[in-house]
Design goal:
Elements (H helix, E strand, L loop, with lengths): L4 H10 L4 H23 L6 H10 L4 H7 L3 H11 L3 H8 L15 H10 L1 E2 L2 E2 L2 H13 L3 H22 L9 H5 L3 E2 L2 E2 L5
């Protein structure tokens, strides 16, 4: 089942999503919604609704992981499955590490949410380099193997960025300016509660 925006907000409440995580998720959803909509307008076969729901729910497991130390993407995937949200479970499960990516393959909602999450630091749209620096400082903890994995993940994200923006008529550096005005159902997503 594909959840409505209202259902996403109810689940955020049910799973006690912390306010700063909710704020981050809302901005990721604005970016993902904007990218999906503009890709659709450019002729790409993509579901704006599925992308938006996946983006809203991408960190649904984050609050629980702060207490348990477990992988928040996997917790989120399990939450989606438990709530019969099969259509977005893999989007949520792969928003940190994208699996089976093909630069020349068809576009997917997973790629858009994966990329959108990497463009939002806290609740601010940033360039990939700034987000990578933050992630390395916050989670790398000067462990070489972990830092290398983070950098490889951002290299993949740079490939996704290239793929996405090859289809769009604006550059990645304009994303922050364009996406912040994004509305869903005629209402700004940030106020849709």
């Amino acid at each position: 089942m594909l959840p409505s925006i209202d259902t996403c907000f109810r689940l955020m409440d049910k799973y006690e999503m912390l306010e700063h995580i909710r704020a981050h998720s809302l901005v990721v959803a604005k970016v993902a919604h904007f990218l999906a909509r503009t890709l659709l307008d450019a002729g790409v076969d993509i579901s704006v609704e599925k992308t938006t729901a996946g983006a809203l729910m991408h960190d649904i497991g984050k609050t629980a992981s702060l207490n348990s130390g477990q992988d928040h993407a996997e917790i989120g995937r399990q939450i989606c499955l438990e709530n019969n949200l099969y259509e977005i479970a893999e989007i949520v499960g792969e928003h940190v590490r994208l699996k089976n990516y093909n630069l020349n393959g068809s576009f997917s909602e997973k790629e858009i949410v994966f990329y959108s999450d990497k463009r939002v630091n806290h609740a601010t749209i940033v360039v990939l380099e700034d987000r990578q620096t933050y992630i390395l400082e916050r989670y790398g903890r000067n462990h070489e193997e972990l830092c290398n994995a983070i950098m490889a993940n951002f290299d993949l994200c740079t490939e996704v960025e290239t793929k996405l923006f090859n289809k769009l008529n604006f550059s990645a550096d304009r994303l922050a300016q364009l996406a912040m005005d994004e509305n869903i159902r005629g209402k700004p997503i940030i106020n849709n509660r």
